[in-house]
Amino acid sequence: MGPVKREQVFNLPNLITLLRVGSIPLLMGMLYLPEAGWHWAAAILFFVAGLSDLADGFLARRMKKVTVLGQFLDPLADKMIIASMLVMLVMLGRAEAWAAVVIICREVAVTGLRAVAAAQGLAVPSDRWGKAKTALQMLAVLLLIMPEPLGAFKVQYWGTLALWTATVVSFVSGLRYFVRFNRLYMGQS
Question: Could you state, in order of their start, the residue ranges of all structural domains in the chain?
Fold first, then answer.
């Protein structure tokens, strides 16, 4: 057995992911301030962070810089930013606590399931439901960060509707992960 090849940890895609994690305290601080201008700034920063999620994965594949750290950190960064924003939105009265709890618990459960699967040598990759869940969560949070009013567009109404939809899709997606893990695990026996 030869030496273990070390991968470059601090490459551009991983740095973009780390910047997304680093944006969390800024986002929380902006939302904590009562002026609408800060909430607009938070919405713009959150949107950029969402785009960076697409960029880091694209760059990692394009530059052939896919790393074990990146594969772990990228989905974790998404979960951290969504969870922290949901907590702030509940505090601001823009999101319901039950929806935040369902979404955050789902994320913790699936992360734990993935760790167990990895320990068993199994991979339970994301599917369309997981990708839809992430997109809906991002949309809901973005809308709920925006201050009212936005002309005739009812930001809070559409944001709440998107959050409820994201909550249902998150729950279904989580169940699907557990069913797929069970099939893989039982097939291994």
Answer: 12-188
- The beta-carbon contacts of 111-117 under 8 Å, at least 24 apart in sequence, are 111/75, 111/76, 111/79, 113/177, 113/178, 113/181, 114/177, 116/181, 117/181, 117/184, 117/185
Q: Where are the alpha helices (DSSP H) in 63-154?
A: 68-91, 97-119, 128-145
Query: Is the distance from CB of 21 to CB of 72 less than 8 angstroms?
Result: no
Q: What is the per-residue pLDDT for 10?
A: 78
154-177 tens-digit pLDDT: 999 999 999 999 999 999 999 999
Q: Which two tokens stand for residue 186?
A: 């039982």
Q: What angle do CA 126, 135, 35 make, to 5 degrees?
A: 140
H-state helical runs in 10-96: 12-32, 36-62, 68-91
Confidence check: pLDDT of 148 > 70: yes
Class of domain 12-188: mainly alpha
| pLDDT tens-digit series, residues 117-130 | 888 888 877 889 98
Which residues have C-beta within 8 Å of that of residue 25, sequence separation ≥ 6?
A: none
